[in-house]
Amino acid sequence: MIRILRTFAMASLLLCTAVSAVAQDNVVDEVIWVVGDEAILKSDVEQMRLEAQSMGQRLNGDPYCVLPEQLAIQKLFLQQAAIDSVEVTDNEVLQQVDMKVNYFIQQIGSKEKLEEYFGKTLSQIREQLFEVEKNDLTIREVRQSLVKDIKVTPAQVRRYVKDLPEDSIPFIPTQLEVQILVRRPNISPEEINRVKDELRGYTERINKGEAQFSTLALLHSEDRGSAQKGGELGFSLRTDWVPEFATAAFNLTDPKAVSKIIETEYGFHILQLIEKRGERVNVRHILLRPKVSDEELTNCLAQMDSIMDGVAKGEYTFDDAISFGSQDKDTRANYGIMVNKTDMRSDLYGTPKFEMKDLPPEVAKVVANMKVGELSRPFIMVDNSDKEVVAVVRLKSKVNGHRATMQEDYQALQNALIEKQSSEKIDQWIRDMQKKTYVHINDGWSNCEFQYPGWVKE
After folding, report:
1. Which residues have CB under 8 Å from 14's CB, separation 6+?
2. Separation in Å, CA 437 to CA 27, 79, 389, 427
3. In sequence order, what are the beta bridge partners of 409?
4. Please, which residues have CB within 8 angstroms of residue 233's CB and are 6 or more apart in sequence?
5. Whole-angstrom distance, CA of residue 297 vs CA of residue 38
6. What is the pLDDT of residues 385-430, one digit of tens each?
């Protein structure tokens, strides 16, 4: 709901204690590998094995071979970071920790359940995560520094494609560009007053000590993600939230007080301060959204029909209709062209191109059988603010799924070649580091088919 910057990839759960991991085998912990001047403990490996098992991850090989090697590679990167004085800031690390903790709480249900699950306080979990995230970010910096100078020319990309077997050429899924015109149903003053009165009632009950803010958030907040955590949003920067919400949150000073009612594009909120920490603040909130009546939705559909009749009669173009009639602030100024903000790791992120799976479900359903240039009929959808709106879309362009070609997909092929060369350079770097790094592996741990055989010196 609120624009908190989060990553929804499954994070590393390195929160199991070495003691509990070792206890499962009923053996005393021991050093099993030494890489440079860093030791790898049996408990480290057992910890990773249990983590992978709990997450349903399948390892490609014997875990007591695969996992120590993964840890050894991490040691090589961290040692290189020390040599090159690679550092990440505490602020960067804390941002990652906050995202991970918030994600864990969302998945498990509450802060208390998280603490119970791991047998640690939230502060202890954060401390352990801090070291994990610091190492991860440091390793990422080292990897990026090793491949930062890799560049490829069009001639190299052409040779790369020419030498690829047909079935190894990257497959580009169907991509579409979509224009959208959006109208928002009116909401009656009576409905807005009803929502505000309800929030005022919650504030009065909290101030009188009749109810806890977190309890009311759990029962009534329409931001269901935070409601499960008593309305708590986690430590966030000012830029993580929409301006109105951020201003209200950072102006809070008394943890016992409840803010005045705040209106944002998502609805109406009341807030309560939990804790301030430097440039971050943690608040809880209750969100209520005014309800759109069937009559207002019908009126909005009729209004959209009227606009589209003007397009059909040639009184103005669809682009014109978007410019004067669309109420979607994110697309109106760009002739309604939707921008892909689904996955920051995707080559399509920030572009007007979408794969079908990345479009809003209602839009994907409508455009699935449309021809390029065709306009849809008005339909109801839920927008980024989780509000019902009426929309019309036009399929601006469509490129069917195909094997990548230099003419249509040069960027994708260039990225594939850069990724290949980067992987090869990292692989060679690891092999070179093996030759000049002291490595000792205890008996019983070296009889493995390692990905990089150079761990065991002849």
Report:
1. 47, 48, 51, 128, 129, 132
2. 29, 10, 61, 15
3. none
4. 2, 4, 102, 226, 282, 283, 284, 285
5. 65
6. 888 999 999 999 999 999 999 988 898 899 999 999 999 999 999 9
Q: Determine the Cα–Cα distance for residues 319 and 60; give it in Å rounded to an integer.
A: 53
CA distance 282 to 262: 17
Nearest CA to 169 out of 161, 178, 177 is that of: 161
Helix intervals (H) in 171-293: 189-207, 213-220, 224-227, 243-251
Do 413 and 392 touch, CB atoms closer than 8 A?
A: no
Q: How far is the C-alpha of 169 from the C-alpha of 147, rounded, in Å?
A: 23
Handedness of CA 52, 53, 57, 59 (dihedral sign): positive
Question: pLDDT digits over 147-206, tens only?
Answer: 999 999 999 999 999 999 988 998 999 999 999 999 999 999 999 999 999 999 999 999
Q: Is 119 helix (H, G, I), strand (E, B) or coil?
A: coil
Phi/psi for 269 (5° steps) reads -130, 155
Nearest CA to 297 out of 184, 198, 434 is that of 184
Which one, of 328, 244, 233, lies nearest residue 6 by Cα? 233
Query: How far is residue 342 from each of residues 36, 83, 265, 352, measured CA to CA in Å?
Result: 42, 37, 20, 11
CA distances from 20 to 45, 46, 118 (A): 13, 10, 11
What backbone torsions phi and psi does residue 59 show, to the nearest 5 degrees? -90, 140
Distance between CA atoms of residues 367 and 394, nearest Å: 8
Distance of CA 263 to the CA centre of its chain: 26
CA dist 222 and 192 (Å) reads 15
In whole angstroms, what is the distance from residue 3 CA to residue 336 CA? 21
Quickly state the pLDDT bin for 2 (edges 50, 70, 90).
Answer: very low
Instruction: Judge contact between 254 and 209, C-beta under 8 A.
Output: no
d(CA 356, CA 391): 18
197: exposed, middle or buried (Cβ count in 10 Å: 0-12, 13-18, 19+) = exposed
pLDDT score recorded for residue 28 = 64
Query: Is the overall model pTM greater than 0.70, yes or no?
Result: no
